[in-house]
Structures are given as structure tokens and as C-alpha cells.
Amino acid sequence: MSETTLYSLIVINLLIVIGLIAYIVRLLKQQQQKRVENELKIQGIAADVSKHRLHLIESLQVISRAILNEEIPLTEASIRCKVLLDNLDPQLAQSEAYIVFNEVFEQSKHIPRLEAWKALKGPEKLEFIAHMETLESDYNDRLVNAAKCLLAQDFNRYH
Description:
Shape: rod-shaped
Structural class: mainly alpha
Radius of gyration: 31 Å
Order of helices and strands: HHHHHH
Distance between the termini: 73 Å
Largest sheet: none
Number of strands: 0
């Protein structure tokens, strides 16, 4: 093998090695950029989750105050609290202090809501209203206690 061929092969191999190094460096930079982008996405998602949890907590506290100030029907408040608690922490929703929201929810879920309620005729509404009044009188004390517990609840672990 001649010297020129040998030097030519060495140069070709060096060019291949340099090309591969450039390719590896480019891939590493892309991987680093993707890692940074993913971290930013995760931080954004975490901020959104935290904001959503804060909204749930604030909503629970507003409804609790409305219960205590008798500004909202207890059946409606129970339904809202049950849904909010389920979204915030299903285990908390099943705790002894808040299970009353679920009980009222279960006993009132046959009552039409929103547009279906608006479509009801007067006598039909009266039946449901009577049922809601019975529920509210039966569960009044427990619902008020649950509202007080919600206002006293430490929600710091959800931030």
C-alpha cells in the first residue's frame, strides 16, 4: 500500500470521525433543548394544577360561607361541594366530616338540573322542591357542621 493511499485513508477516517462527532454534538444539543422544553412544560402544568386546586379550595370556602349565612339552598350547596371535593381529593370527600355532601347528592341526583329544571311545569317542580326541603331539614345540622369543617380545613397540602 502506498503512502498516499495510507494518508488518504487516514484523512477519510478523520473526516468520518469528525462528522460523527459533529452529529453526536448536534444530537446532544437537541436532547438538552428537549429536556429544557419538557421541564418548562412540566412547570406550566404544575402551575395550572396549583391554580385549579386553589380555585377549588376558594369555591369550597365561598359555598361554605354561603351555607352558614343561609344564602344558598342546602341541596344545591351539597351537590356543588360534593363535586368540588371529588375533584380536589376523593379521599377527603369520603371523610366522615364531608360524607354528608355525598349523601344529599345521592338522594337528590334524580332531580333535574339546569335546562331540564327550567323545562319542568309548576306541579312537577313543586314535588321536587318539597323533596329538597325535606332533605334540607333532615340534613341541616350535619351540612352546617360540614361547612364549618370546610372553613377550618387546612388545605395547605393541596398547594
